Amino acid sequence: MNFTMPPEPTLATIPHLVRRWILFFAGLALFGLGIAIMVRSEMGLGPWDVFHQGISRHTGLKIGTVGILTGVLVLLGWIPLHQQLGLGTLLNILLIGLVTNAALARLATPHLLVTRVLWMIAGIVTSGVGSGMYLSACFGAGPRDGLMLGLHERTGHSIRGMRTALEVTVLVVGWMLGGTVGVGTLAFAFSIGPIVQPMLRYFGGSGGNAERGSAQAERKAA
């Protein structure tokens, strides 16, 4: 696993670089906020967050903290795959979990079912917009995306198939540990990709950033 740093900026590239970092940090913050909103809706979570929540309920650790620790463990899987580790990947692991914890400390579960449904929708949309923003910045794949890409390059198996198998596994394990599986889980699976795609076009423009981000979004939604 090699660590790469962004190239040295020049006066001509600084405005573009600043825009990318703003997109990146804002996107990670929105994604973490989206997870927290979905948790408080109690309508179901995405597969990995079901897993994180299940472990959280048995360890007493906050769900965002479990997400950070899981991300670090997944990152270890990059070592034999010789994936390039970037600063963006490390920030991805850390900031999403921290924002999730901070937001959960300030949000409470609504009492009305209709409000919980609205929160579920808001959480999915917020996560999708955040995904589109930080993927458009192109500062490195998240730990799970990088693992899937590395396995694909090493084995030749499809990213979609491997991702599906892994996410079904963590979903089942998370559910058995007490993570929340529900309509929100299905809604997230079927809607996150269609939300991310237009965000990539909007924030990434028509250049290579949008194309590379679209490929990552397909792996995320698969």
Summarize the structure in words.
With 222 residues, the protein is an all-alpha fold. It has nine helices and two strands. The protein has helices at residues 14-41, 47-59, 63-76, 87-104, 113-137, 143-155, 159-176, 183-204, 208-221, and strands at 2-4, 84-86. The chain has a two-stranded parallel sheet with strand order 1-2. The longest helix has 28 residues, at 14-41. The two termini are 25 Å apart. The model is unreliable at 206-215 and 217-222 (pLDDT under 50).
Quick overview of this protein structure:
By secondary structure, the chain is mainly alpha-helical.
- Structural class category: mainly alpha
Low-confidence stretches: 206-215, 217-222
- Give the proportion of residues in helices: over 70%
Largest sheet: 2 strands, parallel
Secondary-structure element string: EHHHEHHHHHH
Distance between the termini: 25 Å
Strand order of the largest sheet: 1-2
| Rg (C-alpha, Å) | 17 Å
Count of runs of 4 or more consecutive helical residues:
9
Strand fraction band? under 5%
Number of strands: 2
Defining key terms:
222 residues; 74% helix; mainly alpha; two-stranded parallel ribbon
Write the layout of secondary structure elements.
Blueprint: E1 2-4, H1 14-41, H2 47-59, H3 63-76, E2 84-86, H4 87-104, H5 113-137, H6 143-155, H7 159-176, H8 183-204, H9 208-221
Parallel strand pairs: 1-2
Helix pairs in contact: 1-4, 1-5, 2-3, 2-7, 3-4, 3-6, 5-8, 5-9, 8-9
